[in-house]
Amino acid sequence: MAEDQVGAIIETGPADWQIIQQDSSGLGKIELAGRWVADVDGGVEVRLVWQDTAVPVTARLDWRPARKAWHGRWKATLADVPAGGLYRLETRFRPKGHAAGEWAPRGDMRHFLGVGDLWVIAGQSNSAGYGRGPFFDPPELGIHMLRNSETWALATHPMNESTDTAHPVNREGSNPGHSPYVHFARLLKQQLGHPIGLLPVALGGSPLSAWNPTEPGPSGLFENMVHCVELAGGKVRGILWYQGESDAGGQNALTYADRFTAAVKAWRKALTSRSLPVVTVQLNRVYGSEANAQANRDWTILREAQRQAAGTLPNVAIVPSFDLPLSDAIHTSPAGNMLLAERMARAALAVACGRKVDFRAPEIQSAKPSADGSEIVLRFEPVTSRMDCIDQSANCFMVEDADGAVPITKVVYPQDATVRLALARPPGEQAVVHGACGTNPDVVPIDVERLIPMLGFYGVPVASRGRQQPARRTR
Fold first, then answer.
1. Shortest CA distance to 339 belongs to which of 321, 352, 359?
2. Tally of domains in the chain
3. Using a CB cutoff of 8 Å and minimum separation of 24, what contacts does 392-396 make?
4. For residue 411, what are the CA distances in angstroms to 134, 288, 361, 378, 391?
5. What is the model's pLDDT at position 65?
6. Domain identity same for 180 and 242
7. Angle, to 10 degrees, between the axis of helix 293-312 and the axis of helix 256-270?
8. What pLDDT was estimated at residue 100?
C-alpha cells in the first residue's frame, strides 16, 4: 500500500482541544512522538504558538529540533509551557542542509491546546447532569472536556452523553441533561485566568461501592475514572463529587462516612496525590417519601456522614444544596445547578487553589439547654450576619432523648449566630438534636448575608445544663 502521508507525522501526543494539567509552578509539559515520511535525510522540528496570532508562546518554544529515536522516528518534549492558551502545536520536516525553514515539508498540527487545571466529575445522577428544561449556559473556548468517546472537545451539555462511548461502564440509560460543571469551569477560568478541562465519569444511580475498590464487588467506575485520568496525562487538580442517594438506606447510610473515607484514600493513592482536593455536595431533598420514617432517618444519617467526612479528611470541602430547586423528584434543575456551580467553584478555589474564599456553610457547633430546660440553643459557624429562615413557621429540627421525641413548639431566631428550639418538656438523658431532618426537610435556616443554608446534621449531643460540649463533627 502506498504511503499517503508526507512530512512529519504525530503518532502520540496531545489531541485537539486537550487541556494539560499544570504543575505547582504553573507550567505544563507536552510530550509527543512520531515518524517522518521523506525521500531525503533530515529531522523534525516542533514549536508551540498562540492559536489566535501564530506568535510563539515563548522564545524557547519556537522551532526546535526533535530527537531522532531511530531511522524515520522522532520524539520531542516541550517543557515549561506556561499555564494559559489556547495554543497550536506545529511540526515540520527539515531536510538536511535545507535553509528555508518556512517552506520546509509539512508536518502535523494540534489545535486549541491549553495548560491549566483538570477536574474529575464523579458520582451519580446529579453529577452526571439530569437537570431538565431550558437554560443559558453556553460553551466557551478554554473550557474543554474528555468525552466518553475518549476524544477531547469543547465542553457542552449534556456532558455525560454516550455517543461512540469507549467505556460502557458509565453509559446512561437515558440522555442526561444539564449539570453544574460548565458553569463551574467558567467561574474558575474567570478567577484563575487559565483553561479548565473536565473529565466526566459519573453514572446515574451508582452506589459508593462502584467507586470504592476497598469494598467487595466490582469497582468498575473507580477503574474507569483512573483510566480516564491516565488518558488525560495522569494528573488532575481535584475531584467533584455528588453522590449518596443510592446509599441512603440501612447499613450503607450508617457506614457511609468510613466507606467514603476509604474511597478518597484509594483515589489519592491511585492518582498519586496524597492530598488531592475533593469538593462534595451534601444531599438535597427528594420528594415522595415523607411517610417513610426509616427513609427520613436514613437520609439524615447519610447527610451527617457527608458532613463528618468533610470535617475529618484534609482537603475535602462540602457545600449545601437544600435551597436548590429540582426539575423532578430528585434531580437538581438547571437553575439550581447554576447556583451549585458557584458554591462548588468557591470551594474549589479555597481547597485546591489556595484562595482566601468565604465558601463554608453555617455548621452546628454546639447544642446547649437553657437554664430552665425550656429551650435548646444551637450555635452555628461561620455566620456572617445572622441565622434566620424565610419561613418562620418551618421546623427542620428534631430532638430526641432516652424517652423518645421531645416536641419542639417553636423555632426562634434571635438575630445572631444561634437558633433556639422551644420545647414542650425539658430534654432528658442522652438527648440529641438533628437538623434538616428527612428526605424532604422543612425550609432550613440560612446565613442571611450570604444566602447560604446550614449543613444538615444528625445525633449532635445536647450538653448537660451548665456545661458546654463541642458538637462539631460528632457521629
1. 321
2. 3
3. 394/442, 394/443, 394/444, 395/442, 396/435, 396/436, 396/437, 396/441, 396/442, 396/443, 396/444, 396/445
4. 38, 25, 20, 11, 10
5. 94
6. yes
7. 40
8. 64
Report helix, strand or coil for 395. Answer: coil
pLDDT at 3: 64
- Cis preceding linkage at 86, omega within 30: yes
Distance of alpha carbon 153 from alpha carbon 18, whole angstroms: 7
What is the full DSSP assignment across 87-151? EEEEEEEEETT---GGGSPPB-EEEEEEEEEEEEEEESHHHH--B-S-------TTEEEE-TTS-
Which of 290, 199, 177, 306 minimizes the C-alpha distance to 243? 306
Q: Which H/E stretch holds residue 380?
A: strand 375-381
Using CA atoms, how far apart are residues 364 and 300, in angstroms rounded to an integer? 14
- b/e code 386-422 from CB counts within 10 Å (16+ = b): bbebeeeeebbbbbbbeeeebebeebeeeeebbbbbe
Radius of gyration of the chain (CA): 27
Entry field: residues in the chain: 475
pLDDT at res. 473: 45
CA 147, CA 200: separation in Å to the nearest integer?
A: 7
Q: What is the pTM of this model?
A: 0.94
Do 299 and 210 share a structural domain?
Answer: yes
- Going by their DSSP bridges, the two strands 143-146 and 196-200 should be labelled as parallel
Judge if the upstream peptide bond of residue 382 is cis by omega within 30 degrees of 0: yes
Locate 421 and state its grid cell: 428550639
- Distance in angstroms (rounded) separating the CA atoms of residues 473 and 308: 5
Cβ neighbours around 190 below 10 Å, total: 11
Q: Tell me which residues of the chain have a pLDDT lower than 70.
A: 1-3, 100-101, 290-291, 464-475
pLDDT of residue 445: 98
Name the amino acid, one letter, at 58: T
CB 57 within 8 A of CB 47: no
**Same domain, yes or no, for 236 and 173?**
yes
Res 102: pLDDT: 73
Under 8 Å between Cβ of 384 and 451:
no
Q: d(Cα 387, Cα 50) in Å, to the nearest integer?
A: 50
Residue 140 placed within a domain: yes
CA distance 245 to 248: 5
Side chain identity at 332, as an amino acid letter? Answer: T
Q: How far is the C-alpha of 62 from the C-alpha of 48, rounded, in Å?
A: 6
Among the candidates 310, 328, 351, a domain finishes at 351
Domain span holding position 303: 115-351
- Indicate the angle between helix axes 220-231 and 256-270, nearest 10 degrees: 30
Q: What is the pLDDT of residue 472?
A: 43
